[in-house]
Amino acid sequence: MTSDFSLTVPPELELASRLRTVQFLVTQRPWLDLYGKNVRPVAAFGSTSNKPFIDPAPIHRLLPDELLFEVFARMNPYNLGRASCVCRKWRYTIRNPLFWRNACLKAWQLSGVVENYKILQSRYYGSWRKMWLLRPRVRTDGLYVSRNTYIRAGVAEWKVTNPVHVVCYFRYLRFFPSGRFLYKNSSQKVKDVAKCMKLRASKADCIFSGHYTLSDDKIEAALLYPGMRPTVLRIRLRLRGTTEGANNRMDLLSLVTSGVNDSEADGPEEDILGWQDDETHNPDVPAISHRRGLTTFVFVPFEEVETSVLNLPVDKMDYFVPG
Questions:
Q1: At what angle do helices 113-123 and 11-26 cross, to 10 degrees?
Q2: Which of 89-93, 182-186, 304-308 has the weakest average pLDDT?
Q3: With b meaning 16 or more CB within 10 Å and e meaning fewer, what string describes 62-94?
Q4: Where on the phi/psi map is residue 150: left (φ > 0), alpha (ψ -120 to 50), or beta?
Q5: How far is CA 291 from CA 27, 170, 288, in A?
Q6: Lowest mean pLDDT, pick from 41-45, 111-115, 288-292, 317-321
Q7: Phi, psi (5° rounding) for residue 309?
Q8: Residue of 218, 227, 206, 232 whose CA lies nearest to 288
Q9: How distant, in Å, are the alpha carbons of 43, 62, 64, 182, 240 from that of 127?
Q10: What are 129-162's pLDDT values in tens digits?
Q11: Which of 140, 187, 248, 280 is the most exposed place for a label (fewest CB within 10 A)?
């Protein structure tokens, strides 16, 4: 996925960030020497320290520190977390605030660079890594999936049995850092839908695009259904996580459909955000608040769509508890 995000930091903030990063890298930490030379921190790229140091690990002797820094700079935060479990040296290197600053500014680019710096200093004591872990954010490396089931009565045969059918369908959401999202309501499994959840999806895939806003842990999203009588679908969600920094659950607070007039149907989609629940701009299409199909959304990363339990058929998993 190619992002339309470009990092532009004001000069005064860039200077302060560089000074903080240099201080982090060259600060002496004597307690690390208690463990021996194997855990000595990585010398910073362009560091003023010229003290020679030979690491006994083969990968560290073959991979220069400058190249290791460049590799980490191109990894996403989730892979950085996995890499920090390899050894103490990698763990210390990944603590570099530069890695987490770029990830934070991209995740909350809708707030603006200056506002993100203010939140960083006021709430997270200047730690980009702590901001990444504690501040609610929308994940963009997968799909949010809501699995819904209901029972439908079947046709009685020979007046003996009353068969019922368990119907299963899914709501899919994919978010982008730029403020756009994709929505699909289908009975297809996760592994089949993940292939077509793209901004340039064909109309045959029945994927609709809209815009969203994030305020703390609340998300408000809206999209426009085209047709003879255009309809607005407005979704309100609450972010949460099963562990710290996971952000892998979304509680569906409300799901409302309402009508729009002709001018709004042809105008920017951002204008349909911020409506009241009972608000409609077309008397022929009243506002309807839906009470069914409000199961919590579960996040599924793209690398797990093939093995997710949500691909199981109804006869093997009739009900799913999102947690």
A1: 40
A2: 89-93
A3: eeebeebbeebeeeebeebbebbeeeebbebbb
A4: beta
A5: 57, 15, 9
A6: 41-45
A7: -70, -15
A8: 232
A9: 21, 32, 27, 32, 21
A10: 889 988 999 998 899 999 988 887 777 666 656 7
A11: 187
pTM: 0.76
Return the C-alpha torsion angle 69, 74, 79, 80, nearest 10: 30
Tokens of 51: 């003290």
Tell me the pLDDT band of 239, cut-offs 50, 70 and 90. very high
- Tell me, what's the pLDDT at 156? 67
Dist. CA 220–CA 234, nearest whole Å? 7
| Angle (CA) 54 74 216, round 5° | 120
Q: By C-alpha distance, which of 182, 177, 100, 96 is closest to 140?
A: 177
